[in-house]
Specification:
Layout (H helix, E strand, L loop, with lengths): L1 H19 L4 E2 L3 H10 L3 E7 L6 H8 L5 H10 E7 L19 E5 L5 E5 L1 H6 L4 H17 L6 E2 L3 H11 L2 E7 L4 H10 L3 H10 E7 L5 H7 L7 E5 L5 E6 L4 H14 L5 E2 L3 H11 L2 E7 L4 H10 L3 H10 E7 L4 H8 L7 E5 L5 E6 L4 H12 L4 H10 L4 H13 L3 H12 L10 H9 L7 H8 L1 H7 L2 H17 L2 E4 L2 E4 L1 H14 L4 H16 L2 H13 L8 H13 L5 H17 L4 H17 L4 H23 L12
Parallel strand pairs: 1-3, 2-3, 6-8, 7-8, 11-13, 12-13
Antiparallel strand pairs: 2-4, 4-5, 7-9, 9-10, 12-14, 14-15, 16-17
Length: 652
């Protein structure tokens, strides 16, 4: 019995001894921890907390995880562990080392003070994080940091000097746009820019700059190139043209891939800077035609062309060889006159002209690289719009030639000329022949003049056309043509709106006389357009509500909701009730969107602008400001982790 009792005591003591082993924490300052770690060839583990804060999960980590034999053995062998109370004086200067991490948290550092990995008590307790896995990964990362000695060489933030150097050395400019409060920015600077392979690649191929976007000149540069989040990496040529962009934290190999993509796009189209007369003079000197990119600052597809198509190597090689290239904002300077000269009504419009400024070809809308080159080749081969026009005029009886010309006119958005050609053609076609497939296709695809005899006959005989072809296509054509013609009574010009009220009044009578299907809906949309152009915001809002109740918009999606509200902000609305309604629409647009958070924040930013303008309650403005800041931080974290989360769909 005595022997059994003695054996039990021994076993109990052994168990107690095993459980007594735990992670050892030292009472040290940050500097002392670094010194001790270097002396003992260890790294540093810091539990960052705040005095007086009750944390049951943290207590559980200390009672269970930190008492596991394998955890304690590994941590004590490889790390100097310290508890950092952020309320203590000796830790008051430690905040920047957290690199925007919120505490309480548990962070691994190298002996030199570089942040490695981090976790927190809730993650450890739930099992989402494994302290040993984090510790081992931190040791490996510390080894990598010590093995790499070089970093990207960033020059003084002088854009003019950078442009000059880029031209002289035929290099692109790489710009790291960052903010001091951005954790992914800090991680890129410390964990990626300092990798030898990254440093060697960027130092060899780029002129590198760092610009803080919260102050000049970084702030202006961020506005110019549309930087919305941080970090954003800009690759720019010596002329200031954007070649490539990338954003968010990325591992070294991915970051090098972005540099390679930028170089693949080099040189891209080189656009001449100067006056229109200088461009024409250069075209005469080099005996080339001129390619003109007609854009506006607010046009999304224009930006897509500039960002994704014009910088491509194949596009640049073709256009630089065959044309003098010119970009012009249609709402500024010479662009205003050129807009009228080229009959530009939509954006982007791409125009090819000869050295005297006479149009040879025109294309409306964004084109992919292959299609853009193909279109340019047509112009080079003398098969552009003007060539097709000459061919048509020489033989108007050639149906195929006319159809080819009409198609080119449609690509150029020359609706007026299309209607002229069709009017002349249909004038020689008997009504019964309009049912032929070729003639029906011309009506369906191109005829928009609802007063044209061919269209009137098409409307009268719509039931027979519906029997021969798709009924839904016939109905869609009729509705679309009448709606489009109705909008022609409302024009937006640089001098203000031009609205033909008398003409529209007659138009409404015609719609009633012909008993046009959906005429109330057509009238509603046109009148709403009139209110918007005239800045009659109470009527504009009331019109939308009335049409929405009738189901004219179906279930409005985020794009429709945003456009309703944005029309008021762009139009300078001052009416408080209307602004508050617009703010509500912006919120609904945010709720309805399924895009990742970072793309949806714009809805709330517009809402905030409208609330401020409406002098809404301070509490509402402050709450929304805080929500936006929180979402921006969420978006940064999602982007850093490579897992952007979509918002849940609202009412769609």
């Amino acid at each position: 019995m005595h022997k059994i009792f003695s054996l039990s005591v021994v076993l109990l003591l052994a168990v107690i001894g095993a459980n007594a082993q735990k992670v050892k924490f030292y009472d040290l300052t940050w500097e002392e921890a670094m010194h001790k770690a270097k002396q003992e060839n260890k790294e540093i583990f810091i539990d960052v907390t705040q005095a007086g804060r009750k944390d049951a999960q943290r207590d559980k980590v200390y009672k269970t995880i930190f008492r596991k034999a394998e955890v304690a053995k590994y941590m004590n062998a490889h790390f100097v562990s310290v508890k950092a109370d952020m309320m203590e004086e000796k830790w008051s200067g430690f905040g920047p080392k957290l690199e925007m991490l919120m505490y309480p948290c548990m962070v691994f550092y190298s002996a030199e003070g570089s942040q490695l990995h981090f976790t927190n008590a809730p993650s450890l307790v739930s099992g989402d994080d494994d302290i040993l896995a984090k510790a081992k990964a931190s040791l490996e990362q510390a080894k990598v940091k010590r093995a790499n000695k070089r970093s990207i060489t960033f020059e003084a933030a002088d854009m003019e000097a950078a442009f000059k150097k880029a031209k002289a050395k035929n290099k692109l400019i790489f710009i790291d746009t960052y903010t001091t409060w951005c954790r992914p920015c800090l991680k890129m600077a410390k964990d990626v820019f300092t990798i030898d392979e990254v440093a060697d690649y960027y130092n060899e191929n780029f002129i590198s700059l760092k610009l803080d976007c919260m102050k000049e000149p970084g702030k202006s540069l961020a506005d110019k190139y549309g930087v919305k989040g941080f970090p954003t990496f800009l690759f720019i040529d010596g002329h200031g043209e954007l070649v490539h962009t990338a954003d968010g934290y990325m591992e070294p190999d991915k970051f090098i891939e972005q540099g390679k993509k930028a170089l693949e796009n080099k040189p891209g189209i080189k656009f001449m800077h100067g006056s229109w007369d200088e461009v024409k003079a250069m075209a005469r000197k080099e005996k080339k035609m001129i390619f003109v990119d007609c854009y506006t600052a607010w046009c999304g597809p224009c930006k897509m062309l500039a960002k994704d198509v014009f910088p491509q190597k194949a596009v640049g090689e073709f256009f630089n060889e065959h044309f003098i290239n010119f970009k012009v904002d249609m709402e500024k300077g010479e662009g205003i006159d050129l807009k009228n000269q080229f009959n530009v009504s939509a954006f982007p419009t791409l125009v090819w002209v000869d050295a005297n400024g006479k149009i040879q070809h025109k294309s409306v809308g964004s084109l992919e690289a292959e299609k853009l080159i193909k279109t340019g080749q047509q112009v080079v081969d003398g098969k552009g719009l003007i060539a097709l026009e000459e061919k048509y005029l020489k033989d108007k009886g050639n149906f195929d030639g006319m159809a080819e010309y009409i198609y080119a006119l449609s690509v150029a958005s020359e609706q007026g000329k299309i209607q002229e050609v069709l009017a002349e053609y249909f004038d020689g076609v008997k009504n019964k022949d309009l049912f032929e497939k070729d003639n029906y296709d011309l009506i369906n695809y191109y005829l928009t003049d609802v007063y044209a005899p061919a269209f009137i006959y098409f409307d009268k005989k719509q039931e027979k056309f519906a029997e021969m072809y798709k009924a839904e296509d016939v109905a869609k054509k009729l509705y679309g043509a009448y709606l489009s013609y109705g909008h022609s009574y409302v024009k937006s010009t640089s001098k203000g709106p031009e609205i033909d009220d008398e003409g529209f009044a007659d138009y409404k009578k015609m719609l009633a006389k012909r008993k046009v299907e959906g005429r109330e809906k057509i009238i509603g949309f046109v009148e709403n357009n009139m209110y918007r152009e005239r800045g009659q915001w109470p009527e504009f809002v009331a019109s939308i509500k009335a049409m929405n109740e009738k189901g004219y918009y179906g279930t409005p999606n985020s794009f429709i909701l945003y456009n309703w509200a944005f029309a008021m902000t762009k139009g300078g609305c001052e009416d408080k009730a209307c602004l508050l309604q617009g703010a509500e629409w912006m919120q609904q647009a945010f709720d309805a969107s399924s895009w990742p958070v970072k793309y949806n924040i714009v809805y709330l930013e517009c809402k905030l602008e409208m609330l401020k303008k409406a002098q809404a309650e301070t509490a509402k403005v402050d709450a929304l400001t805080q929500e936006i800041a929180k979402l921006k931080k969420q978006a940064e974290e999602e982007e850093k982790n490579g897992q952007p989360q979509s918002l849940q769909m609202g009412a769609m």
